[in-house]
Specification:
It is a single chain. The protein has 90 residues and is mainly alpha-helical. Helix content is 51%, strand content 4%. The protein folds into two domains: 43 residues, no CATH class; 42 residues. A two-stranded antiparallel ribbon has the order 1-2. It is elongated.
Length: 90
């Protein structure tokens, strides 16, 4: 597949063919997530902080303490109780 001249400046060329980004990454053995992490200047996955939606160890300890105290509640009921009672800091 051949792209117009404007695309030639945007994508790397191999011979007379222009390669689109996913194909180039696949040919180099680089995952898209690694490329975009590099592109946005983020550190390697080994140096990253915890994910945005992962609870902290302190939150986990408080949840487990509440779960041990209210053993008669299901996990769904327990999560609703914790949310409704606002016993966890935001």
């Amino acid at each position: 597949m051949r792209y117009h001249a404007a695309a030639e400046n945007q994508y790397p060329a191999v011979g007379n063919w222009v390669i689109v980004k996913p194909q180039a990454l696949m040919a180099l053995g680089i995952s898209k997530s690694s490329y975009y992490r590099w592109r946005h200047g983020q550190p390697d996955s080994g140096n990253r902080k915890r994910p945005w939606n992962q609870i902290t160890p302190e939150e986990e300890d408080r949840i487990l303490a509440i779960a041990r105290e209210y053993t008669d509640l299901s996990s769904r009921q327990l999560s609703a109780w914790i949310t409704d009672s606002a016993c966890m800091p935001h």
